[in-house]
Amino acid sequence: MIDLHSHILPGLDDGSPDLAMSLEMARLAVADGTTHMACTPHVMPGVYENATPNIAEAVQALELELYRAAIPLTLYVGADVHLAPDLPDRLRLGTVPTLNGSRYFLFEPPHHILPPRLEDFAARLIGAGFVPILTHPERLTWIKANYDVIERLNTLGCLIQLTADSVTGAFGRTALYYSEKLLDEGRVDIVASDTHGASRRRPGLSQAVVAIANRCGEDEAYNMAVKRPDAILQDRPLVPIGKQSARKSGGSSAGRFGGLGRLFKSGAL
Ligand SMILES: [Fe+2]
């Protein structure tokens, strides 16, 4: 499986504090069936001053340590990008990294406050040739009163990323409710771990993938954990699932768990 959202790089944000933790996170991810992972530290002006050069350098350093420790996890450069007025310019200049240099980037809106004109801002980013992937909308506290904003962002062309722990219920009932609503409405493009450590918010997608397969069918679970993340890393065009015509919901009728083996073994690509 391919995990496009992780805070595995040591010392860059509120994720892994040191190399030992990063290696343990990588081991856990691999044991759970993750083969490829985007390293996406927060980029938040004034709080986490990360940018492409220091993120790329940290990815290279961790790649070397993974090689030394014989942990088969392929890493990619990325970022968990927070709202900033100069974001379109910084993306264009390449100082804020997209996912593996593609048109796609993780876009994390403020957790507790809906910024005014968020849709206009997203439209500007899309107009500039980028595709924002809205991170875990199901966890935003303002989703309750503003679900229509999420719908419109999706219609505009933003992709949607669910967090694995939301789908399994680990983030509580509200996050689970909106995960299932978004899944049932066919709006979810990818699932990712957003891992921050080896115990709390640990890596791994398999439990969420099983839950998604039960709800939406195995094919869609595969699309969210392998096929679309792969297309994103390769910068292939993707139409947000929420913009496509009606998609089936409900579990597949036969072999609900049987086909999932392909997700959990190494080399799913
Ligand atoms: Fe994150």
TrEMBL record:
Gene3D superfamilies: Metal-dependent hydrolases (3.20.20.140)
EC id: 3.1.3.48
Reactions accelerated catalytically: O-phospho-L-tyrosyl-[protein] + H2O = L-tyrosyl-[protein] + phosphate
EC primary class: hydrolase
GO molecular function ontology, one term from the record: manganese ion binding
Keywords (A to Z) from UniProt: Hydrolase
Annotated SUPFAM superfamilies: PHP domain-like (SSF89550)
Native organism: Mesorhizobium ciceri
InterPro entries: Caps_polysacc_synth_CpsB/CapC, Pol/histidinol_Pase-like
PANTHER family per record: TYROSINE-PROTEIN PHOSPHATASE YWQE
Assigned protein family: Belongs to the metallo-dependent hydrolases superfamily. CpsB/CapC family.
Protein name (Swiss-Prot/TrEMBL): protein-tyrosine-phosphatase
Pfam families in UniProt: CpsB_CapC
